[in-house]
Amino acid sequence: MAQFPPSGPSVPPIDGSSVPSGPSSSSTLPEPPKATSILLIGMAGSGKSTFAGALSRSATTSEAVASKSKSKDEETQTYMVNLDPAVLKTGYEPNVDIRDTVDYKRVMEEYNLGPNGGILTSLNLFTTKYDQVLSILERRAQEVEYIVHDTPGQIEIFTWSASGSIITSALASSMPTCVAYVIDTPRTTAPATFMSNMLYACSIMYKTRLPFILVFNKTDVQPSAFATEWMSDFEAFQAALNEGNATEPSSVATNRPGSGRRRTGEDAGYINSLMNSMALVLDEFYSNLRTVSVSSVTGEGLPNFFKAVDEARAEYLADYRPELERLAKAKAEARDKKKKQELERLMKDMKMGGAAPSRGGVGSTAGDQEEDEGSYGDRYEGDGQIIDPVSSKTLNSEGTD
């Protein structure tokens, strides 16, 4: 399990308009690494940790079958990162674990916080050291295929917090990254719950602007055909709404008779009208969405998920990375412009100083005193050297001979 020092420099602020810069002499981003980073996000109970374990086992098994001669380390195609400080059992062996750095229960006691506040504060504390984590991931990204991040079940803690935004932006700036939104398929048979998941997915996709994969999990319990039909056929979703209570499982989805209790009057009209309106608004969102159906228990659909991840990587390189290049170039140009302005101010100050009487004293000629003020600017190259006026020796940037 990866370890890093308990203290270190704080991670620099990263937001949607900030891109970590490479060498100051170039605005070109480094070559993308071999690995693709996957952020698993979803509501509590959707099966993210179980799905992460299935990804780890599936990728490792596939690689082992492909090459019997590889060592154990080379067979491992996934690098697992646990970002949930409150989880008791992950179902996989994390390579980087937030629980090794932050004690969730101690945070609750010391700061007098509840469960959600403790998770949020723990994630914030972990993010202050995320620069060290990122350096580990960047090294491993040259060796593995996938870096899987298992996020807390309290979806708003990661997606709408500063720490979650920092982690997401840092990853996206360092390597190809995609978001996998995991849905609990059996609980989505209710039209209202289905629509809530779609709204969450839509908001996360447009907030991160990363390649997005919608994962219908637990298909061994409930097939996801109804969900894909509701996404592609507005009338099918409307029929499910009209059959009964929008907050209870639809018989269209479960293939079982409904509860028999139908909403009537103003209540039914309001619910149906709201759901219909949202379905129409999200129709364009559905058309651009990449969906897969999986079972974390049986492994069904996992090859399709890895295929979707490969497609998401291609989308990242084609769409997201050029934007990073543009931002990096703009940042470098702004930095160069600022340096030029500072140099111009320095040259102006030097010219003003050159108008003073010469320090040559006796032995100095009139030609020396009337030397062109602009000649200093012509000779100065801004190489960072410092001239010692006492010894007339050139010092390096550290002040030594």
UniProtKB/TrEMBL annotation:
<keyword id="KW-0342">GTP-binding</keyword>
<keyword id="KW-0597">Phosphoprotein</keyword>
<dbReference type="GO" id="GO:0003924">
    <property type="term" value="F:GTPase activity"/>
</dbReference>
<feature type="region of interest" description="Disordered">
    <location>
        <begin position="245"/>
        <end position="265"/>
    </location>
</feature>
<dbReference type="Pfam" id="PF03029">
    <property type="entry name" value="ATP_bind_1"/>
</dbReference>
<feature type="region of interest" description="Disordered">
    <location>
        <begin position="1"/>
        <end position="37"/>
    </location>
</feature>
<protein>
    <recommendedName>
        <fullName>GPN-loop GTPase</fullName>
        <ecNumber>3.6.5.-</ecNumber>
    </recommendedName>
</protein>
<feature type="compositionally biased region" description="Basic and acidic residues">
    <location>
        <begin position="331"/>
        <end position="351"/>
    </location>
</feature>
<comment type="subunit">
    <text>Binds to RNA polymerase II.</text>
</comment>
<feature type="compositionally biased region" description="Polar residues">
    <location>
        <begin position="245"/>
        <end position="257"/>
    </location>
</feature>
<comment type="function">
    <text>Small GTPase required for proper nuclear import of RNA polymerase II (RNAPII). May act at an RNAP assembly step prior to nuclear import.</text>
</comment>
<keyword id="KW-0963">Cytoplasm</keyword>
<comment type="similarity">
    <text>Belongs to the GPN-loop GTPase family.</text>
</comment>
<dbReference type="GO" id="GO:0005634">
    <property type="term" value="C:nucleus"/>
</dbReference>
<dbReference type="InterPro" id="IPR030230">
    <property type="entry name" value="Gpn1/Npa3/XAB1"/>
</dbReference>
<dbReference type="GO" id="GO:0005525">
    <property type="term" value="F:GTP binding"/>
</dbReference>
<keyword id="KW-0547">Nucleotide-binding</keyword>
<feature type="compositionally biased region" description="Pro residues">
    <location>
        <begin position="1"/>
        <end position="12"/>
    </location>
</feature>
<dbReference type="GO" id="GO:0005737">
    <property type="term" value="C:cytoplasm"/>
</dbReference>
<dbReference type="InterPro" id="IPR027417">
    <property type="entry name" value="P-loop_NTPase"/>
</dbReference>
<dbReference type="InterPro" id="IPR004130">
    <property type="entry name" value="Gpn"/>
</dbReference>
<feature type="region of interest" description="Disordered">
    <location>
        <begin position="331"/>
        <end position="401"/>
    </location>
</feature>
<feature type="compositionally biased region" description="Low complexity">
    <location>
        <begin position="13"/>
        <end position="29"/>
    </location>
</feature>
<keyword id="KW-0378">Hydrolase</keyword>
<feature type="compositionally biased region" description="Polar residues">
    <location>
        <begin position="391"/>
        <end position="401"/>
    </location>
</feature>
